[in-house]
Write the structure tokens for this entry.
Amino acid sequence: MNGEQGRLLLKIEGLGKRYHRRRVLKGINLKLFSGETIIIMGPSGCGKSTLVRCINRLTEPDEGRIFFDGLEVTGLPVSQLAIVRRKIGFVFQQFNLIQRLNVLENVSFALRLYGQSKNEAEERGIKALSRVGLKSKAFNHPGELSGGEQQRVGIARALALEPRLMLWDEPTAALDPILVGEVLEIMEELVNSKDTTMLVVTHEVGFAHRAANRILLMNQGEIVEEGKPETVFAAPRSEIGEKYKKLLKN
Amino acid sequence: MLSIFREGFIKDLLVWFLLSILLASLCAAGAGMVADRYFSRTVEGLIGDVGEYDLLFQVRTDLKEVAVSRLRQIIQEKAPGSTLKIGVSVAGKTAVFVGLAPKYRVKEVYTNLDYYFRDIPGSGNFSLMTEPRVTLSALPRGVLDLFIREAERIAGVRFAFQDGSNIAVLLEKEANIKKVTKALGGLLESYRLLEVRFPAGYNGENAVEIGRNLAHLLAGKGGISLIRDVTPGQSSDDQQALIITMAEMKRFLLSYAGRVKVIPTAGALLNPGDLLAIGAGGERSLEKGELVKSGDVIIKITSPEQDGAMQGLIIQGDSSALSEPSARLLVEDKKVGEVVANIIIDSPKQRLDAVLDESINLLGQVGSFQDLPFQARQVLTAAETIQAALESINGTGAETADLQKMRRLSALLEGTGAELQKMADQLARLRWVENQLEKAIGGLEGIQTITRLGFIPQNVGYYGDLGQKVGRVDQEIERLLGELRSKAKALDDFLNRLNPLVRTLLEWKAKTTKLANQLAKVESLIGGQGSSFETITELTGLTTDSLRQFEELDFSALRQGLDPLEADLGALEEANLMMIIDELKMIKSSLPKLKDEEIGKTISLLDNYLGGEVTPGEKVQLFVNAGYKKEEVTQMVAEFFASDQVRIQALPPGVLQPDVRNEVSRLLGEVRGVIAAIAVIIMGILAFLQDQAPILAIFCHLDLIAPYRENVSALRKKEFRLAAYRGLLPWIYAAGLGAVWLWATIKLSGAHIPYFTSQYFLVVGALIGMIFYWKAERFHHLNMEEVVAGYALGFSFTTVMREIIIPAGRPGIMQMLNRRKMVMK
């Protein structure tokens, strides 16, 4: 899917962030269109996660502007920001499940808080869990699940809200390699379903090659290369691109 | 951050705040009440209910039965209907309570309680317990009457009475305590106790007298409308009496001991405390370098005198043993050094002893003076015989002395020679008697002077009846002295008139005898010519004068003069000389048989003891009305002592004490307050730990809960400026919450800590709050993954708090309140 074919959903202009004196993001510009899947790759510490967290302001950017669905997110008061956040699903590297709630409650939690009845919320929760293949674990607590399962619950929690945009912050990074596959499988299904727009931070080169509409390569807080996967991995223009090309060949 | 307080959670916080304060106050007050109840019951068990008992006896446990039996007997006799309760026994003492029957709770009974309960076996005294009561203590004895009178004028006071050295003020009812206490406080404020300390070097031996004089001086001046001399030493408190006695004894011993005046030799520099040595006995003289022996005299220099000399005290040996006037310095190791001083000893002890001996001896001889008149009359008879004889010669014409006349005179004197000699002898005896009388008078006057110096105290309490005997003897001596003086004078007159004549006649006798011999020779040789005529002429002149004097002698007047002498001697016998002698002997035997060394050591011991005590003589105390003119009074006192170094201290005249129960109640109130305060502080800490720690922990992540960036928009400038300081807001929240919470809870619970005002609790509360914020994430480990997830899902702060943070916290009021509002319970 060509990103420019859908409606502009997310626009980032000159985004910058520094931790103390270190600039972790330097003038990032990005456009994401509806239904598009962009995969951000780059070495550790290059600012990928910070970029994703800045989008829903879990991390507050220092400069630049972010527009979501035409609304400037930066500078929104917290009450309005919360409304925007509800439209943006977020899958965390560490799953970030609420330990006191069971799987179904974790998934239907937000729905209930946003006004749905318990039954409605649970119904949608079950549906989301079915989508990630965890319906049978609906009443288990997170502590009783494997890492992959927990991440799938995290995905179901995000999906249950039917977000316009899903942000993935290295969803497989904390997983045992054996369990990575089940998560990637679900992610690929989601991509293929084209139900949602996704911005994914990952090191999974294969997944990126298969699923991405666009690849963004970052290094030292900057986007060093951007393009379609076949272009980026076939004829990279950056050093990082070269490395990923080699990685993909291996 | 302020936006979070606009959310629903602020209501949760407010409800928590009010409820937690209420509950904590109730708990703290409850803890205080429990403590109060417990201690009150304990106290009631110990000292009974309010007004139940009036007297507390601490009796020896082993004599408890006897004591209680005696107490019951006294109660039956003196206050029937009164109750008795045996209390607890502690450390060998048993408390026995006596509650007087209501009709005996009157002033008359209270003032006689000491008398009623004077001999309880195994009990020293009793303590007054009657309630309601206020006690005035530490008042000078001399003003107790005034305070009793004044206290009884206060409304709500039943009566007041002296309880030992205190004044017990009994009230009509418990409710009057505050009012009466205030009034008594005002009463104490209206008077002052002026403590006037003597200036350095002032000889204040008689502080009582000085106090009296000073009071007299100040009365009616300098704004003083009331003044009483209340100098200690006038009262008879045991301790005070002991100190006075010791001070008096010291004064006596100092007067009685040998006074040593030390005159330093040229170039010698002596200081108080230096020791001088003098050899003992006439045969011993100390040499330089010699070791001083036990029999030698050692003098300690006590103080300098104005003339460069110094005063000393014999601390070894006796002044009677001194062999020489020069004293050597006693150096280290008891070795004798150079001669550094000459000493002069004045020993009143020896003088008194000698005078007493002499007086006793002389008074013993007064009885032998009874034949004085007889002797005097014999003298007169002899004189009359001689006068008659002389008149017969005188009839021949004295101016025409001739040989014939000389012969006749010679023959006469030969004839009256025996009478004349007898007369001379009698006169000599009378003169001796007169001398003895004079000596007796001198001795008695010496005794009188010494006794009147006052170093034998007159008070019976100090030296048995010696002082009284001295006083009696003094009176007798006074009378005796008067009589002896008149007799001595009469005798003296008599002798003075007769003695010259007798001497002349004796000269006549010698010369006429000589003349008679010569006349015999002249007659035989030249018929009365030659050198014998010169003798005749001389004798004639002499005879002429003597005869004239003898003619002028009024024997009848002399006889009449002897009559009172005779009568007085009779009266002298009635003067009970033996009594005087006995008393003098008694005085002599009663005087301390102390060596100077012993006196010196005793004085040192007395000094050591008195050193730590306020001895009478160092200060006087005057009780005056408040509002006197301090400067004027100070000026007058300074003038009185002729020194500007007088120290005057104005003290409250007494101390106001609540009764034991009130004191215990006050203490219990304080204990209750402190326990409640401790409970409040503990609950405050618990409230922060259980309920506030999660809130304070999330405040450590302001970037997440209230994201702001600093340079987004000029339109939001105001908010961003605030944002620059938003880091302070959690501190302000924590400190403010802690301060208000603790202060409000303390106030509501009635908790208090003595000397710790409510402002301090504000500070403590603020500190607790700030400490909890400072270490918030240690007190509460926040699961940030859950929190971030919550925010990522678009939850508000309130939702995050209610659904994620508070449920994950510790159980407490907040969690309890939160549960009602949780969606995912």
Residues 206 and 248 of chain A are 6 Å apart (CA to CA). The first helix of chain A runs from residue 48 to 55. The radius of gyration of chain A is 18 Å.
